[in-house]
Fold each of these.
Amino acid sequence: MSPDMVLKLAEHSVFTVLKITGPLLIMALGVGLLVSIFQATTQIQEQTLAFVPKIVAVLISLIIFGPWMLTTLLDFTNQLFQNLHRFVG
């Protein structure tokens, strides 16, 4: 296995991880921003108010994007196993 193949595989792996986690992180970021703006305007400094909406938003995002995330991960895994003979020998 050449160094170029290792770098290409690592690049594809990192891109897949970013593609899978992207929607969840963007949703958590958006909800966190809205909660922070709400806390700043109302001057409510409750710690649980910052975490509970983000957790709920991530769970809803998992329900919505879960099948797509699983399909993407399974496609990557199948592609990895199909090309395993190139990596080993």
Amino acid sequence: MNEGTTHHHTLVVLVENKAGVLARVAGLFARRGFNIESLAVAPTDDERFSRITIVVDAHTAPLEQIVKQLNKLINVVKISELADAESVLSELLVATVSATAVERSQVIELVDVYQGKILGVGHAALTVSLNDRPDRIDDFEELLRPFGIIELQRTGRVALPRLDHTGPRLRAVNGGS
């Protein structure tokens, strides 16, 4: 996924937290031939609801049609599209990377530069993680590839609207009397 050019829609779908809801949402996308690039789901702070973050290929799925179809599902409460510029996006990558004794310091340095974590150390491999914006995850993954990725798992993106910083400002307080 290339963040520089928007060829996707990021949808946040609030649904009732009931059995089978995710299967119905995924089934809708499959029946319509919409390609899901990323899917993340978890309960919200209100146990009655779950939040599904779906990243959909914009070329295969016109936004209006997706929203119209999702709204037909009985357990869907609210649908929001989040533009990248107006949202906070995050993704988690966990990877086991080949690392000889000579390469180990290079992998550790790369993890440090990206502010990731070393999760495990073996004789010939390291398990690392990074939680960051999807574009930085992409860059990190590409830089790990030359070492040899043994296993890799990405969570898919999660997103929330960016906070509004245009509210009232604190008034200046003078130090003197």
